């Protein structure tokens, strides 16, 4: 007789794949006994069962690498705990390069491994051939060997997690479909299933490729779509070495692993297809999809060339199965933005087996602690705009994520699908002037401007890309003359109402009790004293403020502000991002240019830094903030879309005699790094406190209304623990910094580069970096001492680290 489901549970987890079972296991192991997991069919029957089972420790980010590294630890221990062998084999892995750029990427990956203490070292072509004798070495320049990588059996690993969850008190039910997540007063309150209703304090959506539809029922955007994914298994191969490492040939789009005397080889497709566009069949369970030979023929030919044995070996299994991919290649992990106590873990892009244990543990810790255990901001469900969770967008974008899995992971690589969705009022004018557009949150924004005769398209490289000289000239214009940039896509949130000031005083660290016409840079903290966001706030009137947010975090900042509005507070929140075009005018001659086309006094006394005024440019009424993200004298000029092109043309004409140049995001990024300005999500997140990032100046703990996180901020500041944000430049002019390069102090890893670029003024690569004090000491004192270097493609490049920015540390140019 089937066991009756309970009427109540502390946590209900939906989905019995690797992720759902991992969340259940880690919750139960930590003492949360009242945990129920529901699976619509059988455990693993969606996509987990047919995974290739590769487990590699080194992933694309700090968080995902932390997940994978923990996964190896669990694989080595869980059999002793549960008696279930997860099928783990520590065979190692070899990634090969067939061109110089791929070789550079692999060397940078090996550098990244140093940050986590993961062994990774270079192998010559001959060494690779000795370790993998079936490989055709033609064209192989070398590779990277990681001895701790390997493979696991997906069903056995999931079974071990499920068994461990039950041992610790969790209940798991199969053949029960969740038909609805129950909502009450903006909170998840339980689930209605095919076998009855379960009330719950927390609901977790681990529905795999069903997670999107399940979330949509409750208004939760889960930006994933299933795509077709192929692999093949050969007939038995005599004398095939059982200890063959996993071999990855990214440029061939293929990976190989030994599989019980056979070879399994899978594909990172050059052309991928979304699956189940009309919905996943109700009866889907341990199912596969039709194998269409034409879909993989191009990759299959490369595979047969790389491993010639395939030309004379039969194929036992032609497999095509669906896997979920996200629109941006990142997980969706965390609390849903609009429903309390509703959590999501989905869209892991073919890394479920290696990431599942760690991702499930992280989400379990989040549920238990009430906040993320590490920086998971890249995976925040709130990053997704509403249009990005709709099927038409996902059907275009998600297959590209699959294609890019084994493609070159270029610095600043741009997506090619679902483009030209959001355009500013200046778009066509900028396009006519040679703009090469980059994309963020659907917005098209100039990355750089092509010279006459150049094609405005990115040509990628780990070295100097085709736009390098253009961006250098754009930087020099901003430093020496005047530059103009389209800022229209930056978030603009109006906070209005009788209680707007007191509300912002509570939410923001800086003093919001400022007169109309003043502007302030401020942080928003969480209760733990971590930085939830950094924004600029301008007071437009007694009851009206504008909060300026970065492009990629506008929705997240909107939701954060919305969630802080207390019952009975007269506060209204509006997103007016699209209501204004914004032009940034910067550089030592920017005052002269603006003075020629406006009707106000622009002197330092009449229009000081951090102030706001309304006036006319040409025939258009505008308002402007005197601010700078470049470190130069500058203004941000707001205009309604109807007058936007007129203002652009007037400023452009006035600026030409002064050397005005249009600039893009590549130049601006270098300018801000050279000046030492930070960016949330790159240089800091909600795990870092203001004192670590050098932002205590924006915190006013003595103001009349205490800000959220004040006491925690003061306690963390007193404790003075690192790591700390410092400023770095290479002592050589040729190497480039992108991000995540290890920073060494006296030959030992001390931190990493959070953001890097080439500074035209400094004349070398510059970066921001998070550095930890030696020997567990506190404070910044002495941090710049010692011999510093940065690991770039395996070479220690000498570097200088400073406690203050290298460019204009006293802000004389910006405030002049």
UniProtKB/TrEMBL annotation:
<dbReference type="Pfam" id="PF01266">
    <property type="entry name" value="DAO"/>
</dbReference>
<dbReference type="InterPro" id="IPR006076">
    <property type="entry name" value="FAD-dep_OxRdtase"/>
</dbReference>
<keyword id="KW-0560">Oxidoreductase</keyword>
<dbReference type="InterPro" id="IPR029043">
    <property type="entry name" value="GcvT/YgfZ_C"/>
</dbReference>
<dbReference type="InterPro" id="IPR036188">
    <property type="entry name" value="FAD/NAD-bd_sf"/>
</dbReference>
<protein>
    <submittedName>
        <fullName>FAD-dependent oxidoreductase</fullName>
    </submittedName>
</protein>
<feature type="domain" description="Aminomethyltransferase C-terminal">
    <location>
        <begin position="726"/>
        <end position="808"/>
    </location>
</feature>
<dbReference type="Pfam" id="PF08669">
    <property type="entry name" value="GCV_T_C"/>
</dbReference>
<dbReference type="InterPro" id="IPR032503">
    <property type="entry name" value="FAO_M"/>
</dbReference>
<feature type="domain" description="GCVT N-terminal">
    <location>
        <begin position="426"/>
        <end position="703"/>
    </location>
</feature>
<dbReference type="InterPro" id="IPR027266">
    <property type="entry name" value="TrmE/GcvT-like"/>
</dbReference>
<feature type="domain" description="FAD dependent oxidoreductase central">
    <location>
        <begin position="369"/>
        <end position="423"/>
    </location>
</feature>
<dbReference type="Pfam" id="PF16350">
    <property type="entry name" value="FAO_M"/>
</dbReference>
<keyword id="KW-0614">Plasmid</keyword>
<dbReference type="InterPro" id="IPR028896">
    <property type="entry name" value="GcvT/YgfZ/DmdA"/>
</dbReference>
<dbReference type="InterPro" id="IPR013977">
    <property type="entry name" value="GcvT_C"/>
</dbReference>
<comment type="similarity">
    <text>Belongs to the GcvT family.</text>
</comment>
<dbReference type="Pfam" id="PF01571">
    <property type="entry name" value="GCV_T"/>
</dbReference>
<feature type="domain" description="FAD dependent oxidoreductase">
    <location>
        <begin position="11"/>
        <end position="366"/>
    </location>
</feature>
<dbReference type="InterPro" id="IPR006222">
    <property type="entry name" value="GCVT_N"/>
</dbReference>
